[in-house]
């Protein structure tokens, strides 16, 4: 059955649309706001900023995180920066240009109106964060400094050393802590959402598990906001934190929320290559390194010489050669694919031949080691600690790794899913980045959604519910799902198989990276759609989880997440198979230009793929939301 | 390399705990400390022994979730390093490694090596913020911040809230954590209006849960972000001043 998807994009010109729409939306009187309860799940950039803003407005907010503190969310690890069209440097930036770069960077697979609004509110985000005391880098005159990032020819990225995500998250966390202290937010830490409750077609609450006591609880509200991040951990090895997972959005999907563009995964070009089989995650080196670092490999395949021994004229600075206008700052998908092709040609570097060089010898000569240390010191240190190699002396080795997922729950212009009352913000939704996310835009979207979009749009929904009580948690809608969640949780302990959930997760990751990774093809995807269900069957019979459901049990937390990954993985492959074009983070080998660049097919694929749950992720139901481009002319993306 | 682990096992906050010996075999020196524990846990799971609980998440040294006492040292032997960024190459084949949780009354044990650090959130809730409702901020460049000040503030703001400072302190004091947040905000022009109420509220809240500072400096040594105890001096000075300033404000208004 096709889904009914109404994007609720207002009429009018794009540059005045959001401003006008804010006037058109219904408001909730300040005295009435306290009559509404809102649940926010996840307290990263999007969740913390939303919970804080909604509480400041006067709503009753309950916030949930599986961490011991909201300050741990993985937004904290974003290093490079946050974009904003401030044009402080007078280098030609504008809201329109940021909008244009983002639509183009996303390979024309995002909704123009959402992206324009994102560019517009980017200005407020910098003001808000600065006022909160985020210690952004400064010029000597005391004004904000910025730098440039991949996919842009202007300098619009604001940063706080290599810890921008950390500082922005702490800003949002501190705002949240303030309202928690004032009693305006009820904070639930170490609590994981395991299902969403839908009654009469509306989201009315969630069911959670207290990770310390194992208690299954229901929480009821007028609206539920999911801000639970991305699902790159489906690949096992990714740049995500270990606990990042897809459970919240997957459970929402199973309750009827459309899942959009699941196949769009950003494979980030600058990660430290994996060292061995036991590796638990991949560490991202900030993209900002590409501002100064130069990427190269030896011109000769199978070269075993050390970097220093390879003379200048035997080095291939392949990005500078192939993309003279953007050079090392080409967007992430382009940089990633080029690194992969160098390695496939046998030019990989490092002990496992699985990296390319990111070399700072030139900039150190030009700018001095002190300047480089000031700009990237902490990243260099981190690299040194992990690899035992000193990047001031020898080039870093980098390789692409699964990073950010542009897919997620389908949302309309109000950031509401197709289930009324259920919102998805930040990385958990699909909305703003299209098929590829530009650097320094994740922080921007998380905060835009939480601070400056949702607080406006949610009132439009709530205003119509004035006087409606929340559904009591002893309603069958809740008790039935509570029982289901408890059964599902206990079930894993009863299997008593032989292998850990981690083992199956690793094996699933290998299938995904091989067939639904940096590049995909029909045969591989079909193969994955056979291998994943087969491995899933084994998992369900043979997984071994010890301990009890009534205590702190990390294996039990993990196994449920892996269960959801299996189902999501299948949907990702199905979506990738269906989309027989190349765009952004989705590169189909059958669809390329003569010189090996991604070839889009706008006639057949200029749509958002929104999948509906049918009971079998391999047979999910596709509904297409057509995309129209009125302001950014569809053109072949070129960074030459 | 082959190692012997002595790991603190405790099934719950009120259960008795003890050190239990486990072998860790075929450990690669390129493995991180937590990856070594992953391998040990896989082995335990296979043998039907419940895996060791430990807190961790980003494994990039930034979320502050991990933290173990390794041979009596918070985050182990490598200075300026969180546990997740400690690699096995810092140990020798045949070593015995003692692994314990953070020990402090301010951080009750959850299970095995995982502890509850929510007292840190209570300190932040008491005043570790700048009051700025969403949407009310003025244009960012209207507030000038000298570069040196921004850098100094950032040095303090780099705190990851892991709790190593408390774990390393013989008095289980939380001065370094609290001072880092106070200094981050009070150095900036944006932080001035609430400077004196903030320091008083945060220090008073801290003292509800944690011990007193006797300037031993262990906190600075253990801090994975190498945050300076100079910030504690700054906090103490502000606290002292606040006691006078805040009192005068009271007398003026009342």
Overview of this protein structure:
The complex is a heterodimer of chains A (640) and B (254). Chain A is an alpha+beta fold and 640 residues long. Chain A is 37% helix and 14% strand. Chain A has helices at residues 14-24, 30-33, 45-57, 95-105, 112-131, 164-181, 247-254, 318-322, 332-344, 361-367, 369-387, 442-462, 476-495, 501-515, 522-542, 554-578, 602-605; strands at 37-41, 60-64, 82-83, 157-158, 185-188, 191-199, 202-210, 216-220, 223-226, 259-260, 265-271, 294-298, 315-316, 356-359, 396-405, 408-409, 422-424, 607-612, 621-626. In chain A, strands 5-2-1-9-17 form a five-stranded parallel β-sheet. In chain A, strands 11-15-14-12-13 form a five-stranded antiparallel β-sheet. In chain A, strand 6 and strand 7 (202-210) form a beta hairpin. With 254 residues, chain B is α+β, with helices and mostly antiparallel strands. Chain B contains eight helices and seven strands, in the order ββαβββββααααααα. Chain B has helices spanning 33-46, 118-125, 147-157, 164-168, 175-186, 195-209, 218-222, 230-253; strands spanning 3-10, 17-24, 69-70, 73-74, 96-100, 109-111, 114-115. In chain B, a hairpin with a 6-residue loop joins strand 1 and strand 2 (17-24). The termini of chain B are far apart. At the A-B interface, helix 3, helix 5, helix 6, helix 11 and helix 12 of A face helix 1, helix 2 and helix 3 of B.
